[in-house]
Amino acid sequence: MSTDPKFAPDSSDPPLLDQYTALLHRSAGQVYTTRGDGRQHGVVEECGLLPVIDLGGLWSNDGGKRQACAADIVRASSEWGFFQVVNHNISPQLLGEMRREQVKVFETPFQRKASGHGGFLNDSYRWGNSTATCPNQLSWSEAFHIPLTKISDEAFYQDLTYLSLREVMRKLATAMSEVARLLASVLAENLGHPRALFDEYCNENTCFLRLNHYPRCPISSSDIHGLVPHTDSDFLTILYQDQIGGLQLMKDSRWVSVQPNQDALVVNIGDLFQAWSNNIYKSVEHKVMSNKKVDRYSIAYFLCPSYDSLIGSFKEPSVYRKFTFDEYRRQVQEDVKKTGHKVGLPRFLL
Questions:
Q1: What is the pLDDT of residues 236-247, one digit of tens each?
Q2: Computed from CA positions of residues 197, 201, 202, 204, in that sequence, does the dihedral angle turn out positive or negative?
Q3: How far is Cα 124 from Cα 162, in angstroms, rounded to an integer?
Q4: CA nearest neighbour of 261 among 56, 101, 50, 59
Q5: Which of 169, 231, 302, 304 could form a disulfide with 206 if both were Cys (CB 3.0 to 4.6 A apart)?
Q6: Would you identify the CATH topology of the domain 42-318?
């Protein structure tokens, strides 16, 4: 680690530099890439055109405005796979409370966060990448991966110190769930399905919140990501990020940066919606870049179905074979373990 005091590791930070150094030695002399598909991963453009959609249109008494807003959501999901939403009905006060609680919980000493099964916040803590085989598969970040069913469980929090976290997470999860289901209903209706479809598909047993922290990274290397390139294995994701920036998405074979908008939530389509829509909606590869000077925080809500839910195309001929969500998760985990990265939907092509 750098001797510069501003880069000195905090006792709460995970030992990411140790993991990086071990991976560097293990892969010495090897030629490695995150993907071998020839795309221009080093080219980054500013993304000033990412759609920003005012959800107020969905509640308008004007039918034309409702239809126009729904059409914007469909278009963004088809052309970008990513968009931002404003007037989403989640108060800035609630988001601010969540950010304060999030920072506090990540300031907990690392040894306590990583205390193992049944330990701190019921073993929901993750850091780095235990399956990485080379430096560019390492995510310079830590996270709490929390199923919605655990949020209201007092035993999950171990002691009274984190009961304020429980209450704020409960409110935020409820609010983000409403936004996610609203957007999913619009996208389902566009494909000819009832708006209430996702009330049947998705429940608290498989939806979850993920609290993310990206510590300052002292290594000046384009190989180091806060979060490695990936797609999301869900229907859709709602993200509240801070104003630091670093989120990038793949558009027309180029990485483009998503500029933070303090009034907006970021929404992206997941693999399950792409498969179910027969590739009408796009699950787009994205990543987070590490930052050498400041820490970054974000909170993500993942809209997922029950594990035995069968994912099939809404029409024939289908691009993908039918699969359950549990089958998809297991295949992703197997691929990551074997190759160091997710393969995803190409495994299920017909």
A1: 999 999 999 999
A2: positive
A3: 14
A4: 50
A5: 304
A6: Jelly Rolls (2.60.120)
Q: What mean pLDDT is predicted for residues 108-119?
A: 78
- State pLDDT tens for residues 309-324: 999 998 899 999 999 9
Measured in degrees and rounded to the nearest 5, phi and psi for residue 173 equal -60, -40
The sign one gets for the Cα dihedral 63, 66, 70, 73 is positive
The number of residues making up the chain comes to 350
User: Residue 319 corresponds to which amino acid?
Assistant: V
Instruction: State the Cα–Cα distance between residues 165 and 169, nearest whole angstrom.
Output: 6
Alpha-carbon gap, residue 172 to 36, rounded angstroms: 39
* Gyration radius (Cα) of the chain, Å: 20
Q: What tokens were used for 305?
A: 């179905």
For the segment 74-84, what is each residue's pLDDT rounded down to a tens digit?
999 999 999 99
Region 41-55: what's the mean pLDDT? 71
Strand partners, 211: 144, 299
Q: What is the 3-state secondary structure (H, E, C) of the chain?
A: CCCCHHHCCCCCCCCHHHHHHHHHHHCCCCCCCCCCCCCEEEEEEEECCCCEEEHHHHHCCCHHHHHHHHHHHHHHHHHCCEEEEECCCCCHHHHHHHHHHHHHHHCCCHHHHCCCCCCHHHHCEEECCCCCCCHHHCECCEEEEEEHHHHCCHHHHCCHHHHHHHHHHHHHHHHHHHHHHHHHHHHHHHCCCCCCHHHHHECCCCCEEEEEEECCCCCCCCCCEEEEEECCCCCEEEEEECCCCCEEEEECCEEEEECCCCCCEEEEECHHHHHHCCCCCCCCCEEEECCCCCCEEEEEEEECECCCCEECCCCCCCCECCEEHHHHHHHHHHHHHHHCCCCCHHHHEC
Confidence of residue 38 (pLDDT cuts 50, 70, 90): very low
Q: What are the structure tokens assigned to 283, written together?
A: 């699950």
Backbone angles phi and psi of 217, in degrees to 5: -115, 115
Question: Model confidence at 338, in pLDDT bands (50, 70, 90)?
Answer: confident
162 pLDDT higher than 50? yes
- Residue 291: predicted pLDDT: 92
CB-based contacts of 193: which residues, under 8 Å, 6+ apart? 314
